[in-house]
Specification:
By secondary structure, the protein is α/β, with parallel strands linked by helices. It has three helices and nine strands; from the N terminus they run βαβαβββαββββ. The strands form two sheets. A six-stranded mixed sheet has the order 4-3-2-5-6-7, sandwiched between helices. Strands 1-9-8 form a three-stranded antiparallel sheet, with helices on one face. The longest helix has 22 residues. The structure holds xanthosine-5'-monophosphate (XMP) and magnesium ion.
Length: 179
């Protein structure tokens, strides 16, 4: 991987613009269905979603509660391991709360299917929605899709803006890939 060149898929300015547009759509949904005065719990899936979560939340207009869970389905490398490990899944009571789960990327869909089932059935939340930065639709294996997403990506392994390769490159302010 290191001997390949890092190419830009989406530059920093375009990416933050798309995240702002996404926030506008999310605000519009909650304004119409509830009210922008009503609280929303946003759940960040660590570590990958951290940059997207902070960028997105700057533009959300409702009072937010911020929660963090830590899940992993990749291990080291570029392929999903096919099972989800919950490294930390402690959440406050979410009964009857509106919850927006925020994740870096939906690939096969396994991680988010696991987490959404957990929040819907175990936590008995009211309205559970899902926002992802990147939707890799072509890799989907489970019957799930994001309610909101910022960008479509094809079947490339991407890094940056929270996404890692062997824990590196999360700090890039843009999304790139190796070629
Ligand atoms: P699943 O298959 O559960 O995978 O939808 C989602 C998780 O896998 C990671 N993932 C990636 N990480 N570049 C990355 O750095 C990628 O292209 C990529 N595709 C999937 C990611 O952590 C996500 O939460
Ligand atoms: Mg992740």
């Amino acid at each position: 991987m290191m001997d390949k060149t890092l190419k830009t898929l989406i530059g920093s300015e375009d990416l933050t613009k798309e995240i702002k547009n996404l926030a506008d759509r999310i605000n519009a949904y909650y304004a119409e269905k509830y009210s922008l005065n009503e609280e929303l719990t946003i759940v960040c899936v660590l570590k990958g979603a951290v940059m997207f979560f902070t960028e997105l939340s700057k533009h959300l207009k409702m009072p937010l509660r911020m929660e963090f869970v830590s899940l992993s389905s990749y291990g080291a490398g570029e392929k999903s391991s096919g099972k989800v490990s919950a490294l930390s899944l402690s959440l406050p009571p979410l009964e009857n709360k509106n919850v927006l789960v925020v994740e870096d990327i939906m690939d096969t869909g396994l991680t988010l299917k696991f987490l959404l089932d957990f929040i819907k059935t175990k936590c008995k939340a009211n309205d559970v929605k899902l926002a992802v930065m990147c939707d890799k639709k072509c890799a989907r294996k489970y019957d799930i899709s994001p309610d909101f997403y910022a960008i479509d990506v094809d079947d490339k392994f991407i890094v940056g803006f929270g996404l890692d390769y062997n824990e590196l490159y999360r700090n890039l302010p843009y999304i790139g890939y190796f070629e």
